[in-house]
């Protein structure tokens, strides 16, 4: 197994890291029960080393009833038994670090599970109790309190209020099984600071913050009024004091934060990235962008411009555990992403989508900053159609069955083509069904194919690490034909550099001046021109 221990002095690793997202439940099943686990991840560490990633981001692995895929946390200090144990998590963190791979974990501070000890105590204590002050309990409106306390809409659709038998309602911006915490209460802040220290002490190098802009609420919980400033629960100023406190803790451990911050206002977004707050935040503008040259260039320019004033690196991601798989999305007529636009039966050209996804991989890996890679993207996995009776995602049910949900991008990874369940596990059927075609995407098949998606990602990640022009640093756009994106990346440690060129036009394009071809997402035309929906890295 290759890989080398991390250098303690590399404090800026996060500025240009390649970070691999692991959805544990679907990554690899080590004990054969149909659910992915930490034993499965540990067994696949050699694969991740060979892939060439710098860090692993784990979606929640804590004790959870899994009402929302683990984002309903019942206990932050306990690993869910389906995944393993705390001791096994500690071994995984240490083993990965010895191989040169850091660990980033998820925290979900907006809410907890309804099975969390705090919420169970609040239910038992009753109306007006100190236990209920940790959450948002309110009496309803109407003659008998039968109307929810306000008119907000849940992130999953419908009302975000659930009424208890004693007549009170509690707030949950997501599912009813995810009651929102009251961040105005000092005990809530103290608990989360203790949780951060708990995991930093165990060697975690970073924390991804789920729904980072939703924690604080207007204490009056007023009705929503379009255009109202400030919003009653999105991006309230009180959040920045919370994250400044967190940053002070992270700095003690040389750890970092990654925020999930969905905000359309650039000026408001960048406040989270000030030097005493979060280190980085996810870039949803680029993720949601359609496969078109002008919108992509605008998204890149906007991203770099909004990060520049605070000196924070940009992040780039094509897909995650909530979003339609890249090869599927890029094979559809509408290639952008919107949750509201998801529907069953959308026609997809997977051959076209795969060609574009290969080009998009080289584009995202060539941009300045850090990049995130969701498990299975390196295999070119498509979005799977889940049978209606097997869908588990609450987004599907809260939409009245209109939204197909997010299970299609969470199907267990295929590892070995000829093994049961494509090598995901040995015995039990996986928790989500794998399509019949899944074995054809298996990692063992792709490892031996130099033209596979896996081989492309391995080569690209190897070059990204070796070439001084890549990673964090400047980029310069080059003049190019309509529908073509071309830019240079020049290193600061020596002469030379690289050009990334991506052809999104309707015909082949001439390559910029270069001294050699480093890598292409597909073969060049006979005349050395770049075909449509193809990208190239060139040495200059």
Task: Give your account of this protein's structure.
The structure is a single chain. The chain has about 550 residues and is an alpha/beta fold. Helix content is about 25%, strand content about 15%. The chain has helices spanning about 25, 40-45, 45-50, 85-100, 115-125, 185-200, 240-250, 265-270, 285-290, 295-305, 325-330, 350-365, 395-400, 445, 455-465; strands spanning about 20, 55-60, 60-65, 75-80, 100-105, 135-140, 160-165, 170, 205-210, 255-260, 280, 315, 370-375, 475, 485-490, 495-505, 515-520, 535-540. The strands form 4 sheets. The chain has an 8-stranded parallel β-sheet. A hairpin with a 6-residue loop joins strand 15 (about 485-490) and strand 16 (about 495-505). Helix 6 (about 185-200) runs parallel beside helix 7 and helix 12 (about 350-365) packs parallel to helix 15 (about 455-465). The radius of gyration is 23 Å and the shape is globular. The chain starts with 17 loop residues before the first strand and ends with a strand. The mean pLDDT is about 95.
Annotation keywords:
540 residues, alpha/beta, 8-stranded parallel beta sheet, 14% strand
Task: Describe the structure concisely.
The protein is of the alpha/beta class and 540 residues long.
| Total DSSP helices | 15
The radius of gyration is 23 Å
| Average pLDDT | 95
Shape: globular
Sequence stretches where pLDDT stays below 50 over 5 or more residues: none
Kindly report how far apart the N and C termini lie: 34 Å
Structural class by helix and strand composition? alpha/beta
Into which percentage range does the β-strand content fall? 5-15%
Helix content: 25-40%
Main sheet summary: 8 strands, parallel
Across the major sheet, the strand order is 11-10-9-5-2-1-13-12
User: How many DSSP-defined strands?
Assistant: 18
